């Protein structure tokens, strides 16, 4: 199941939807995504079928304005494969269509890649979305891009997520070879994950102005992002 939060073209409100066959289907219920994820697993599947069979609207996915699929009320945990945990203001979570901020007089940004991991259902399921944490050279966190969708996995269909990273410069043909990244120990279904977590690799990549990062999460979706745009 691929769940999204998007800005509706018919009113501009944040709405919950599912992605199926290249289209976003608006969920007709009143629940927010966090409320759906807190329900029993069977109820989440029922809600998915409801959105698929009786959508409020249908939008071609690449035309939809996608927002961060989660917006926790409390500071969100950031964990790396090694090192201490930190907590971030949840307002720093942005969607893949929101871009990456490039403050004035900034010559580039560091980006750390990984996953947004979210518990769902009451049977130990975990949902995943690619995540990129953007930092100043000084180490200050500017934003965390997450999405495009939150892909839900239960115990029966658990896979170890991987990401493929490609960095492209302004000049045609100036492309670094893509690197497939296996995250060593992200939370898996049945691991007892109790809250949303941003799970990151230990190493980052520096993007200079004009460079673009392409994240390919396979079944988790993909997106391209250029700092400052």
Question: SSE layout and pairings?
Answer:
Layout: E1 2-7, E2 14-20, E3 23-26, H1 33-37, H2 41-53, E4 58-60, E5 65-67, E6 76-80, E7 86-88, E8 93-94, E9 109-120, E10 125-135, E11 141-146, E12 150-153, E13 162-168, E14 179-182, E15 197-200, E16 205-207, E17 212-216, E18 222-225
Parallel strand pairs: 6-15, 8-11
Antiparallel strand pairs: 1-2, 1-5, 1-12, 2-3, 3-4, 6-7, 9-10, 9-15, 9-16, 10-11, 10-12, 13-14, 13-17, 17-18
Query: What's the CATH first level of the largest domain?
Result: Alpha Beta
The gross shape turns out to be globular
Cα Rg:
17 Å
**How far apart lie the N and C ends?**
30 Å
How many strand elements?
18
Uncertain regions spanning at least 5 consecutive residues: 171-175
Supply the CATH superfamily name of the largest domain: Fumarylacetoacetase-like, C-terminal domain
Describe the model.
There is one protein chain. With 229 residues, the protein is mostly beta strands. It has two domains: 2-67; 76-225, Alpha-Beta Complex (Fumarylacetoacetate hydrolase, domain 2), CATH 3.90.850. The chain is built from two helices and 18 strands. The protein has helices at 33-37, 41-53, and strands at residues 2-7, 14-20, 23-26, 58-60, 65-67, 76-80, 86-88, 93-94, 109-120, 125-135, 141-146, 150-153, 162-168, 179-182, 197-200, 205-207, 212-216, 222-225. Strands 1, 2, 3, 4, 5, 6, 7, 8, 9, 10, 11, 12, 15 and 16 form a 14-stranded mixed β-sheet that branches. Strands 14-13-17-18 form a four-stranded antiparallel β-sheet, with no helix packed on it. The longest helix is centred in the N-terminal third of the chain and has 13 residues, at 41-53. The protein is globular, with a radius of gyration of 17 Å. Mean pLDDT is 86; it is low at 171-175.
